[in-house]
Amino acid sequence: MLSAAYHTRSRFTATARHAIRGRYSSTSTPNYNEPMSGNVMPRPGGIASMMRLPVQGDATDLDACFVGIPLDAGASNRSGTRFGPRQIRAESALIRKTCMGTGVDPFSYLRVADIGDISLNMFNLKKACDNIRDGISSIIASGCRPLTMGGDHTLTYPVLQAMKAKYGAVGLIHVDAHSDTSDTMYGEKITHATPFRRAVEEGCLDCSRVIQIGLRGSGYSTSDYDWARNQGFRIVTGEECWTTSMVELMGEVRGMMGDAPVYLSFDIDALDPAYAPGTGTPEIAGLTPSQALQIIRGSQGLQIVGADLVEVSPPYDMAGTTALTAANLLFEMLCILPRPKRS
Q: CA 69, 74, 76 angle in degrees (round to 5)?
């Protein structure tokens, strides 16, 4: 499933080594992984895993994992998102283990590692989707919750196929500048503009529990969002978010989602390009990073079964700002995952 480059686990100093994968039983005390401290290895040093966590070849014994999907075959404008996972990992070296804003240390109760990238067919998008679906299926088989680094937004379609097979139709919190519910692009059914239409057609989504936040920009007609609304999606446009806290909205979202499984999909172009220029289809007047944090932190308490951060395109991210923001948002997603029940 994973690329050969990640099948060999990293070698760490004795101080940081308690993080390497172990086997756990119902009677043993879990040995939790932690990011390598900057006091053990300088932040520019070491292997570029997500948050400098240990790397292992699969999701065995993990509660959550970071996994990359280096895909841009579905992109319609700027390419380069295939390099997104690599750059997100590089920028994540700055992130420490505790979220000071919420007081959450996810590494004190979650077994987490970076399991590398899903190996996929770079020349056939349909086959790549099959690779992604199978890869995610193997991750979630034992209950591990994947935090996926993209890669273009096409990848969320096969991820949701895998989620449906395990959990049934899931709720969706979709943060994006675009609805991604087009029927086709140039006659093709599978692109980064179509994942949620395909997901609805295949029964992957509980449409009464789908919300899209931040949609904005120019379109082809005033009816561009009609299909999504007709399915029962709740749409919160970018204009509705201007100068507004997301806290109240997320209170409503928690009531909407209930205690059933929910997937979180965050396209970095939901943010204003002043904050996240390195993306394929930027749209002005977007969300701020603080609003993004309010959305993610506002999902605390939901039954999040997985999440993704997509559309980071490093060739358009000269200062690394977009990838750094993406890495921090992925860490925040880790912080809101449900605590596992230990027997």
A: 130
Confirm if 270 and 241 have CB atoms less than 8 A apart: no
**CA 123 to CA 31: how far, in whole Å?**
40
Token reading at 255? 């009531």
Query: What token pair was written down for 292?
Result: 């993004």
Can you name the residues that pair with 99 across neighbouring β-strands? 104
Q: Residue 31's pLDDT is what? A: 84
Cα–Cα dist 175/265, whole Å: 6
Q: What is the pLDDT of residue 47?
A: 87
What is the pLDDT at residue 29? 64
Specify the CATH number of the domain 4-9+45-335. 3.40.800.10
Are 6 and 21 spatial neighbours (Cβ–Cβ below 8 Å)? no
Strand, coil or helix: what is 173?
A: strand
268 in Cβ contact with 177 (< 8 Å): no
H/E stretch holding 255 reads helix 247-257
**pLDDT tens profile 234-276:** 999 999 999 999 999 999 999 999 999 999 999 999 999 999 9
Whether the CB-CB separation of 265 and 281 falls below 8 Å is answered with no
* Helix ranges restricted to H, 33-185: 84-91, 125-140, 156-167
Pairing of strands 303-310, 170-175: unpaired
Distance CA 229, CA 206 (A): 13
For residue 116, give both structure tokens: 């590398």
* DSSP calls for 133-145: HHHHHHHHTTT-E
Facing residues of 304 across strands? 262
Q: What are the domain boundaries of the chain? A: 4-9+45-335
Inter-axis angle of helices 289-297 and 321-335, to 10 degrees?
Answer: 20
CA 282 to CA 278: how far, in whole Å? 8
